[in-house]
Design a protein that fits this description.
This protein is α+β, with helices and mostly antiparallel strands. It has three domains: 85 residues, no CATH class; 108 residues, Tetrahydropterin Synthase, Chain A, CATH 3.30.479; 49 residues. Helix content is 47%, strand content 22%. The strands form three sheets. Strands 7, 8, 9 and 10 form a four-stranded antiparallel β-sheet that branches. Strands 1-5-2 form a three-stranded antiparallel β-sheet, with helices on one face. Helix 1 runs antiparallel to helix 2, helix 4 packs across helix 5 and helix 6 packs antiparallel against helix 7. The longest helix has 41 residues. This is SPFH domain-containing protein. It comes from Paenibacillus mellifer. InterPro entries: Band_7, Band_7/SPFH_dom_sf. Pfam families: Band_7. Keywords: Membrane, Transmembrane, Transmembrane helix.
């Protein structure tokens, strides 16, 4: 069921006709004659029937009109109007709204329990779908938002120290875009447009937070050590190549080994190096 515009009349013009019928009816009834009284009653009935069709539509609001269970259309333009008498006008807000999800406990792709929450910014773009395709579209938005958040969170790790692939903590923009796209697919049936969605809370669950912090620290130390070792090896290679290219000194295998050992210790050590002056030869 899609939204369609319904025909309607200006409410102020219709109100003038209603007052005119009512005044005519009262006048005819006061004549106290059979035929005029019948006409006066009919005129008053017409005024009362037209009065049931008056409705007001606020800015950023729509009125969905149904007539004894039949969907007729929607009034989107704000103002005072006359719709079909005896029809039901259900008002739907078209304003932009926020939904803040509760903190959900989810397992990421590595099986680690995490706490996650999101805020969803949405608005209704199809009033007919919002009312007739789902039961209570606001509740539908809440449930589907939490379901989409659980699905997206379970596809990625909380953190990725090796910088390979996406993670929930490091790639918030990409995760937000994917979450918005999935929400739009889920909520299109309800006539809802997702404007934006963002993660508002992300943390390890309390039962593993301490252990995961130690793990992160250990992984960070290992990653830093790997870079230090790679840099140290590169520096040693450059030093030996420059010494040999400049013919500053001739290094045999034993001197090269000693030089490599000294340079690696000086660069890799987490303490400042203490130089030792050798006054004799290596032999």
């Amino acid at each position: 069921m899609k939204e369609k515009e319904i025909s309607y009349l200006n409410g102020f013009v219709a109100l003038l006709f209603i007052l005119g019928f009512a005044a005519l009816g009262v006048y005819l009834i006061t004549l106290n004659e059979a035929v005029p009284i019948a006409g006066g009653v009919l005129s008053c009935v017409i005024a009362l029937v037209l009065l049931t069709g008056l409705t007001t539509v606020q800015p950023n609001q729509s009125a969905v009109v149904t007539f004894f269970g039949r969907y007729l259309g929607v009034i989107r333009k704000n103002g005072f109007y006359l719709a079909i008498p005896f029809s039901t006008r259900k008002k739907v807000s078209l304003r932009v709204r926020n939904f803040n999800s509760a903190k959900l406990k989810v397992n990421d792709v590595n099986g680690n329990p995490i706490e996650i929450a999101t805020v969803v910014v949405f608005s209704v773009v199809d009033s007919a779908k919002a009312l007739f395709e789902v039961d209570e579209y606001e509740t539908f938005v809440e449930i589907q938002s939490e379901a989409a958040l659980r699905h997206v969170a379970s596809k990625y790790p909380y953190d990725q120290l090796d910088d390979v692939g996406f993670s929930l903590r490091a790639n918030t923009e990409e995760i937000a875009l994917e979450l918005t796209g999935e929400l739009q697919n889920r909520l299109a049936i309800a006539g809802v447009k997702i404007i934006e969605s963002r993660l508002t809370h992300l943390a390890y669950s309390t039962e593993i937070a301490s252990a995961m912090l130690q793990r992160q620290q250990a992984e960070a130390i290992i990653a830093a050590r790997e870079k230090i070792v790679d840099g140290a090896v590169t520096m040693v290679q450059m030093a030996i190549e420059r010494l040999q290219a400049g013919q500053v000194v001739e290094l045999d295998d034993e001197r090269k080994a000693a030089m490599i050992n000294n340079l690696l210790v000086a660069v890799v050590s987490d303490r400042s190096a203490q130089p030792v002056i050798n006054a004799s030869t290596l032999y």
